[in-house]
Amino acid sequence: MKNYKPTYFDKIVLRRILASIIDLFVCFIIVTVIWILLSILGFITFGVIEKAIPFIFPVILSTYYSFSVGGKKGLTLGMILFGINFLNKNNQNLGVKELFIYNLLFFLVIPVGILLLVAIILPMISKERKCLQDYIFKTKFILKD
Q1: Angle at Cα 91 formed by Cα 89 and Cα 92, nearest 5°?
Q2: What pTM, to 2 d.p., does this model score?
Q3: By the 8 A CB rule, do 144 and 85 touch?
Q4: What is the DSSP letter of 88?
Q5: pLDDT > 70? residue 1
Q6: Is 86 helix (H, G, I), strand (E, B) or coil?
Q7: 29 pLDDT exceeds 90?
Q8: Where are the domains of the chain?
Q9: Is 90 helix (H, G, I), strand (E, B) or coil?
Q10: Backbone dihedral region for residue 37 (phi beyond 0: left; psi -120 to 50: alpha; all else: beta)
Q11: Mean pLDDT of 68-97
Q12: CB atoms within 10 A of CB 121
């Protein structure tokens, strides 16, 4: 273990994890701001709007990923900061339809994958450190530097 040097794919998975943490932090900030606004509106509307508060995080998370990954570059803020990009099987940026399907697949696979620990174990044991949705959709991540 002393002489282990991280491979290219190890660097990618580490940057993906860090990018995900940044993205979750951004979502947390947005959720906090909206939670405060809904609490104020809930006071004004005698608690009617406060019933929507439990739905804030899933809606913000799915909206953030849909608009950032579904944008022109197809990258989240964390991916841009850590210099990673993802391509389809033809080594091209994903188109709008592909990004939509990838997002949909991501939100279907991740909850099941986390429950079954596949989403955590698979990238650690695979040679290319790909996640389950990357294998299903045949995408790959590359470093921009």
Answers
A1: 105
A2: 0.78
A3: yes
A4: -
A5: no
A6: strand
A7: yes
A8: 8-143
A9: coil
A10: alpha
A11: 81
A12: 12
At 117, list the tokens.
């620990």
Nearest residue to 53 via CA among 29, 37, 65: 37
Q: Is 20 helix (H, G, I), strand (E, B) or coil?
A: helix
Place of tokens 């790959």: 140
Query: b/e map of 18-27 (b: 16 or more CB within 10 Å)?
Result: ebeebbeebb
From the number of C-beta atoms within 10 Å of its C-beta (0-12, 13-18, 19+), residue 126 rates as: middle
Q: Where are the alpha helices (DSSP H) in the chain?
A: 8-44, 56-69, 77-81, 96-115, 118-125, 132-137
d(CA 37, CA 82): 31
Contact 61, 25 (CB under 8 A): no
SS3 143: strand
